[in-house]
Amino acid sequence: MKVTALQVGPIMTNCYILCDEAAKVCAVIDPGDEPDRIEKAVAQTGCEPVAIYLTHGHFDHYTGVAGLLQNHPDLPVYIHRSDVVDGRGHELKFPRLGEKNQRYFKEGDILTLGTLTVSVLETPGHSSGSVCLVVNDVIFAGDTLFCM
Q1: Nearest to 26 by CA among 6, 61, 7, 2
Q2: Which among 22, 27, 74, 108 has most CB atoms closer than 10 A?
Q3: SS3 category, 11
Q4: Contact, 41 vs 90, CB < 8 A?
Q5: Nearest-CA neighbor of 29 among 144, 38, 126, 146?
Q6: Ramachandran bin of 111, using left for φ above 0, alpha for ψ from -120 to 50, beta for the remaining angles
């Protein structure tokens, strides 16, 4: 397992690339902006993106999704249902995608990324659909915790 961290967008949101180097696959977590920069970072890993995981539905965690889907139109995008809105999104809700891409996760779900397992923990508070994603001894907390 390898994790690459980037700070993207005007408020420097943490975006992660979670790689299973053995299987040569990765997931992009919270692509908040700068999809071209994220694409370059993914290419440097040598892994093929197979999913996008969103820890919650605020704009600074999803703005790069559309750009990534332009290059990878079949990627599933996972988010908690509580943070999705039908129609046009706004800064605090993710705009629902078509059936081809939209996926939902909830408390207790286990996602498979190559040989890695990703456990979903609901952590509402920052948003009603905030989740943490746990892989081995690593947790992707989104905005559940802030520095200071």
Answers
A1: 2
A2: 27
A3: coil
A4: no
A5: 38
A6: beta
